């Protein structure tokens, strides 16, 4: 059942909004602004009597005031005592009505009821506005709830479908699929290594007797070591060392390393030298 409906005794829903709209407005309270001349005269006489009594009390207060020659501190104490006594007297006095005329009391009561009716109408208007706001909020929340239910239903169906598919797959098929993926990765790695070896062999060959002879012509004495390893082998040593012992990835530079290749690796940031041992290098971490 929606929040905009209530259940009747016969079991049929009733729309509260239509019920509020169909409810007739309360009858206007008559406002008796005019009284009879006798009532007005009586009320005027009572007001004059109260005013005369008030004036008499004011004169007595003026006459009872102490002289200005007294000490200001004593005056303050006396005033405080008088105010306290007056307060105590007012607390013991029972309030009395200004007039006992039923016609006057009816007019005053009607006026108070009119004011109260206006205040209640204002409260009713505010309550209706708040009700409309809450109704709109309820509609948006219900729409949001339906959307979330649809998402939950779709997610549940997907989970059930995946579970059924997983149950159909056996452990053997999963193992075979994993082996195939591993083999594909190995093949891909081998192809990359072969491509890298071809590139390095083509563009970074080992020094030959011819290159050594050219350097001798330039008055650069250099002996050629027959046990030099290629740049591809140097990189392979660095990668294997990093994978096998990541805690100690440095390799020792010996006479089989051609110095120009070692310097090139260090200069272009492919390899790093040991901070304490200049004869050790490691592969730079690219991950």
Characterise the protein shown here.
The protein is mostly helical and 287 residues long. Among the domains are: 5-141; 225-283, no CATH class. It contains eight helices and five strands. It is elongated. Residues 1-24 have low confidence and may be disordered.
Question: How far from one another are the termini?
Answer: 60 Å
Low-pLDDT ranges: 1-24
SS element count, helices: 8
| Mean pLDDT across residues | 78
Largest sheet: 3 strands, antiparallel
In which range does the helix fraction lie? Answer: 55-70%
Order of helices and strands: EEHHHHHHHEHEE
Strand order within the widest beta sheet: 3-5-4
List the helices and strands and how they pair.
Elements: E1 5-7, E2 13-15, H1 16-22, H2 37-64, H3 72-92, H4 102-168, H5 171-203, H6 209-217, H7 231-244, E3 251-252, H8 259-267, E4 271-273, E5 280-283
Antiparallel strand pairs: 1-2, 3-5, 4-5
Question: Tags for this entry?
Answer:
5 strands, 5% strand, centromere, three-stranded antiparallel β-sheet, two-stranded antiparallel ribbon, 287 residues, chromosome, coiled coil, mainly alpha, nucleus, elongated, 8 helices
Quick rundown:
The protein is mainly alpha-helical.
């Amino acid at each position: 059942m929606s929040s905009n409906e209530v259940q009747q005794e016969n079991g049929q829903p009733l729309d509260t909004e239509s019920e509020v709209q169909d409810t007739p407005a309360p009858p206007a309270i008559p406002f008796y602004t005019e009284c009879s001349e006798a009532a007005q005269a009586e009320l005027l006489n009572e007001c004059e009597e109260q005013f005369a009594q008030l004036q008499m009390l004011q004169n007595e207060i003026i006459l009872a005031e102490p002289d200005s020659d007294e000490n200001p501190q004593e005056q303050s104490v006396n005033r405080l005592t008088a105010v306290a006594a007056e307060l105590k007297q007012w607390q013991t006095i029972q309030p009395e009505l200004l007039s006992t005329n039923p016609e006057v009391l009816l007019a005053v009561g009607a006026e108070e009821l009119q004011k109260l009716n206006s205040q209640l109408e204002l409260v009713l208007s505010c309550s209706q506005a708040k009700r409309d706001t809450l109704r709109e909020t309820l509609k948006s929340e219900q729409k949001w709830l339906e959307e979330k239910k649809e998402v939950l239903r779709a997610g549940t169906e997907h989970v059930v479908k995946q579970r059924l598919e997983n149950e159909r797959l056996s452990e053997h098929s999963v193992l075979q699929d994993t082996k195939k993926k591993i083999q594909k990765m190995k093949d891909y790695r081998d192809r990359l290594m072969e491509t890298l070896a071809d590139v390095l062999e083509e563009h970074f060959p080992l020094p030959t007797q011819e290159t050594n002879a050219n350097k001798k012509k330039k008055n650069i004495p250099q002996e050629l070591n027959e046990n030099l390893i290629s740049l591809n082998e140097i990189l392979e040593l660095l990668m294997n060392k990093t994978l096998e012992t990541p805690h100690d990835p440095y390799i020792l530079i010996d006479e089989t390393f051609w110095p120009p290749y070692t310097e090139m690796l260090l200069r272009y940031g492919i390899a790093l030298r040991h901070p304490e041992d200049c004869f050790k290098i490691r592969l730079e971490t690219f991950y």
